[in-house]
Design brief:
The chain is mainly α and 262 residues long. It is built from 13 helices and three strands. The chain is flat and about 60 Å long. It comes from Mycena pura.
Length: 262
């Protein structure tokens, strides 16, 4: 199963060629299910390889149901205003659940004050890179922006969830000083890190129980955003470097410094 091909930002042509090659090989024990938004290039290639099934309307109904559930908690809003906001989110979301989820998260920052929410909607980013830009730009402390990027680097290397206490220890270094040393007396506060990383990571099962919390990258588009040369705005790049190379260098440097600190 290959899900969300449209979220693949690199090597799209190679991926499409590989899919076509698998189909042409007519392997008796291999079946492919591929999902994607209806981008022209994907439709042109995949239509020749198999059967196309349109899900137009299905995803939109799921998104509407999710938005209804969230807005139903705002008893002080009239049904008309809720419908107005839901319609606007559906239009701006373009059938992307992830984007609508993040747009609703941005609306929460308005305190669910109706006038503020409507104003926020008028200036709401309509693409994942743009909304990720906004999240990062709203983090005012440069040190925290750097911690966000180091968090993404660590999670990239791990390839899966990482214990929150271990992540906090991995950030407990003054990376501007030489030699690098582990400093457990000045850890990043878990609540502050999770709040800053909101939209980029997901935490389970409970952010208030740090002994059980696990942190992972929230969505594949997060990694794509950080590693893309076009992703980060110039105002952020000075604090942020995320790539497979920088991730492995960070992990190796941090682990060696940790061992040398005792």
């Amino acid at each position: 199963v290959l899900d969300a091909l449209d979220e693949c930002s690199d090597r799209r042509e190679k991926l499409l060629d590989s899919i076509a090659a698998i189909v042409e090989a007519q392997l008796s024990n291999v079946r492919l299910i591929v999902t994607s938004r209806p981008e022209v290039r994907f439709k042109a290639v995949l239509a020749e390889c198999g059967v196309s099934v349109s899900l137009d309307g299905c995803v939109d109904r799921d998104i509407e149901s999710y938005v209804d559930t969230i807005l139903s908690k705002e008893a002080h809003w009239t049904p008309e205003k809720k419908d107005e906001i839901k319609t606007k989110l559906a239009e701006q979301g373009g059938g992307m659940f992830r984007l609508v989820f993040l747009q609703l998260s941005e609306l929460r920052k308005s305190g669910w004050k109706l006038s503020s929410a409507i104003k926020a909607l008028s200036d709401m980013p309509t693409s994942l890179p743009d909304i990720y830009d906004r999240i990062l730009q709203n983090v005012k402390a440069p040190d925290m922006v750097s911690n966000i990027c180091r968090t993404i680097n660590w999670l990239t290397v791990c390839g899966g969830p990482m214990e929150l206490p271990a992540l906090i220890d991995a950030l407990a270094f003054d990376f501007d000083k030489k030699p690098l040393r582990f400093n457990p007396d000045e850890p990043t506060q878990p609540e502050a890190l999770i709040a800053a990383c909101a939209g980029f990571v997901s935490v389970s099962p409970d952010i208030y129980d740090h002994t059980k919390s696990m942190v992972k990258i929230a969505h594949a588009s997060v990694t794509d955003y950080f590693v893309s040369a076009k992703g980060l705005k110039d105002s952020i790049k000075g604090y942020c470097e995320v790539s497979p190379q920088s991730a492995h260098f960070l992990v190796a440097r941090t682990c060696l410094a940790y061992l040398c600190s005792f």
